[in-house]
Amino acid sequence: MEEGSVYHVFTKSIAGYKVFKNKGDYRRMVETIWYYTYERETKFSKVVDFKKENKGEPVVRIICYCIMPTHLHLVLEEKKEMGIPQFMSNILNSYARYFNLKYNRKGHL
């Protein structure tokens, strides 16, 4: 991946599993996406005020996103070398932890 380049990135759940079940789940993913747009030393574990929390350098620029019940699409600009892989790892791991705790389950989504 090259800094300044734009990429369409998407991810799907395993076997079409519904991973966004209600408005709260969608909201959590949106908050997670915006939180990890910037470099972070700590993990996302609460609802945050993004205007106060946007510290650090952006790793990606979010051009647009679409969240569907079983998958999500993002159009991202790489702002830092390896920013998109770092960003995707952070949002997917964070959301999986949230989802598994909320729905009392274990494993990959």
How are helices and strands ordered from N to C? EHHEEH
Q: Helicity, in percent?
A: 25-40%
- Overall geometric form: globular
% residues in beta strands: 15-25%
Notes on the protein architecture:
By secondary structure, this protein is an alpha+beta fold. It has one domain (6-102). It is built from three helices and three strands, in the order βααββα. The protein has helices at residues 23-35, 50-53, 83-102; strands at 6-12, 60-67, 71-78. The protein has a three-stranded antiparallel β-sheet. A hairpin with a 3-residue loop joins β2 and β3. The longest helix is centred in the C-terminal third of the chain and has 20 residues, at 83-102. It is globular and about 40 Å long.
Compose a concise summary of this entry:
With 109 residues, the chain is an alpha+beta fold. 34% of the residues lie in helices and 21% in strands. Strands 1-3-2 form a 3-stranded antiparallel sheet.
Layout: helices, strands, pairs:
Layout: E1 6-12, H1 23-35, H2 50-53, E2 60-67, E3 71-78, H3 83-102
Antiparallel strand pairs: 1-3, 2-3
Features:
109 residues; alpha+beta; three-stranded antiparallel β-sheet; 21% strand; globular
